[in-house]
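Technical annex B. To support the medicinal chemistry partners, we prepared a structural model of the target in complex with zinc ion, based solely on the information shown next.
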Amino acid sequence: MKDCNCIFCKIADGEIPSATIYEDEDFRVILDLGPATRGHALLIPKDHYPDLFELEDEAAAKILVRAKRIAARMKKALGADGFNLVQNNGEAAGQTVFHFHMHLIPRYREDHAGILWEPQKTTAEELEEVKTLIQGYQEDNG
Ligand code: 5GP
Ligand code: ZN
């Protein structure tokens, strides 16, 4: 399952060189060219899935296990104080490369990486409305 016009397919296959910190038959993990912090990496499946919603369950299960192990190694190797896993889906959510990938972002005290959000206000009514919408929508096995 490859997309011949996809830059992350080419990077994952090794057709385009990258700073690779891990590789196996399913994944390549590379350093991001526009890092949020020192060591920011991308976990890229070798198969082409545009986003989370297209990801096969089997791949999804492997991704979190791999992300956990590599994050633990990176945190120790780089002396990070914390760690964010970030995964964007759709332009509105900040996705710019439409081949599923997980950001592995080491965090350091005072690094000022703008990854967290400003909490908005809500109400009990709105929480109830949103809860009912989601619970009442049952299309598949989610
Ligand atoms: P997204 O915005 O889709 O969640 O993340 C895409 C990420 O890929 C960005 O952080 C961007 O810096 C990184 N990126 C885009 N093109 C390349 C590339 O050719 N090489 C590497 N190493 N990173 C890339
Ligand atoms: Zn691809």
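Notes passed to the chemistry partners:
The two ends are 24 Å apart (CA to CA).
The helical segments are 7-13, 57-78, 124-136.
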